[in-house]
Amino acid sequence: MWDPLSALGALTAAWLLLGAAWRVGCVVYIYLLPWARPGDHWIRAQGAWAVVTGATDGIGRAYAHQFAKKGLNIVLISRNANKLEKEAKEIERLHGTDTRVIQADFTGGLEIYGAIEEGLKGLEIGVLVNNVGMGYSKGPGKLLDCKNSAQGLSDTVNCNMMSVVQMTRIVLPQMVSRHRGIIINVSSMSENHPWPFLATYSATKAFVQRFSTAVGAEYLSEGVTIQTVSPGVVSTNMTYNIKTGLLVKDPQEWAEQAVHTLGLSSHTPGCLSHAVQTFLIGLLPSWCTCNRWTVKFWARLHPRAP
User: Fold this and answer.
1) Which domain of life is it from (predicted)?
2) Which domain range does residue 93 map to?
3) What whole-number distance in Å separates Cα of residue 201 and Cα of residue 224?
4) Which residues belong to the active site?
5) How many structural domains comprise the chain?
6) Is residue 167 in some structural domain?
7) Region label for 240, one of left (φ > 0), alpha (ψ between -120 and 50) or beta (otherwise)
8) What is the model's pTM?
9) Does residue 34 belong to any structural domain of this protein?
10) Least confident of 30-39, 72-81, 207-216
């Protein structure tokens, strides 16, 4: 005869094993079974155009090329006009699709979105990639370490959070009217915990994840797919083009794998390597990243930011 404590222990162990088996099964299904992936036709059926913010570098540029490769026309939105024109010509040359460019600085407020909305008018937008983002300073640092902290904080919030909300507001109505469309909101693995010395960045990415999940639930029945993508370290300008390897991914390689998860997962790190990293980091309790000893350790690794 089992006593109540033994029965409770057995039930808990069974629950944990079932949970682990479910997670492993999801990883295999999403990342390791090519036949499970929706084909290019499913993506093209969402609409003729893909809109990508922060499209001239890193993850945004990689997404633009991936969707152009699948036959979509591309609207590139970024703040550097020269880079926009260069990238648009490169996409047309490599993939034979049409492009449009919209110059916009997403650190601005509501005043920038009228021109964006006008530039997108009349386009059948099947995919929106809310990728544009920035760090608060040139490297990890305390909240007040950056010069002109008032402007820096405002810029970060506008770029990382307001851009996602406003771009979704602009594009979502036509997707709902057509009962199809994909919105990809690029977050970060840092969303999972509060991170000292990355406080503003990680907090804005947590907002992106919560907003994306909630709006995705609201419009799932309307035929709109909203996916949160939360990568680990990808070699981009923001990460100082760090050398790629087992843990650090090349943006083109990462984006190719991330696009394969569309229709299979509403929240993904984008690739198998980052999925494993996310799982391991998720085992850490929040207090582990914010206790005084951890903060002292990170303070030694990250000198005062300029």
Assistant:
1) Eukaryota
2) 39-301
3) 28
4) 201
5) 1
6) yes
7) left
8) 0.91
9) no
10) 30-39
